[in-house]
Amino acid sequence: MFSFFKKKTPPSAPAVAPAAAPAPFDAPAEALPAGSLIGSALVAPIAIPEPSATPPERQKWLDKLKAGLGKTASSISGVFGGSQIDEALYEDLEGALLMADAGVAATEHLTNALRKKVKASGVTHPIALKNILIAELTELLQPLQKPLVIGQQQPTVIMVAGVNGAGKTTSIGKLTKHLADSNASVLLAAADTFRAAAREQLTVWADRNTVEIVSQEGGDPAAVSFDAVTAGKARKKDVVLIDTAGRLPTQLHLMEELKKIKRVIAKADGTAPHEVLLVIDGNTGQNAVAQVKAFDDALGLTGLIVTKLDGTAKGGVLAAIARERPIPVYFIGVGEKLDELETFNAREFAQALLA
Predict the structure, then answer these.
(1) CB atoms within 10 A of CB 222
(2) Which long-range contacts (C-beta less than 8 Å, at least 24 apart) are formed by 266-272?
(3) Which residues participate in GTP binding (predicted)?
């Protein structure tokens, strides 16, 4: 299997570190994650410890994330500038979290947890309260931290949905790079046949990543998906990545088309799709939560990609998702470049949002 992280580490700890990266396939077998594929052979399961320091490339990306969430971080951090913990501080914090798109449920959960911790610990200084908030937010976000793992099926079929403008096709291009960089063979399916130039856009990403693509000009999305899965099986690809047409969850007839695509994929491979991902725009606030609920109800989502956390997005929406519909966040993006999509880590995100 492949799991998508950035750092190669020696095999001594008992658990796989969620923020680490897989070793390239020219590394020695003992450095690879359990079940990784080298050619057609499976590596025996091993354990990979958490790295002792953040790799430089990961730190560079974290700096971008902190910059992208800087406005929200400054707004929330300002709440802790006083000299005492009082009711006014809690009220200001509630307002700051709501303004950060954390939503009512997550805001109430966090502030109630803070009150209990302060009462139990006896802390009196706002800075200590901020540190408690970072820990509580990390705990809230922890269920969202899960790696995307492929290789249990061949091909692993990944269906990607999202409303127009969320960055769906761009995210597919970035995800393709993650897969290709780990030596996974990828076949793209241009099943977003309704949006003008979508097929051409995906073809550009295929060329950049040097991967194959299945497309039909004006073809039926379900038919394109079926052909792609069939071709992926015949060509022994590791991954078939299907770009489905953008949909608004309020357009019920269009959501039905997505359900049809999923059914047709299952006809080509009875176990597929193995992953159903939703790309959401981090700028859309509570509307993103509504999208997650609607697409999950229709398709049964297995993971999320959150995009555009690059200066205008407030970021707190992940807390709302964690509280109301805790679907794993496989990747978050901070820009348009190929290397600006990275794995989600709960503590890193909490620190970037509140630092």
Answers:
(1) 21
(2) 267/226, 268/225, 268/226, 268/229, 268/230, 268/233, 269/153, 269/157, 269/229, 269/233, 271/153, 272/153, 272/157, 272/229
(3) 162-169, 243-247, 307-310
Instruction: Tell me the CATH class for 69-143.
Output: mainly alpha
Q: Which residues are annotated as a binding site?
A: 162-169, 243-247, 307-310
Binding residues for GTP: 162-169, 243-247, 307-310
pTM of the predicted structure, to 2 decimals: 0.82
End-to-end CA distance of the chain: 35
How big is the chain, counted in residues? 355
Q: Which residue has the tokens 């966040």?
A: 329
User: What angle is formed at CA 182 by the lines to CA 13 and CA 277, rounded to 5 degrees?
Assistant: 90
Domain range list for the chain: 1-53, 69-143, 152-343
Which fold, 152-343?
Rossmann fold (3.40.50)
Locate tokens 């994650």: which residue? 33
Mean pLDDT split into 10-residue runs, the chain, 355 residues? 45 41 38 39 38 76 88 91 92 94 95 95 92 96 94 94 87 90 91 71 84 84 94 96 76 82 96 96 88 93 92 84 96 82 93 89
Q: Which helix (H) or strand (E) holds 18?
A: none
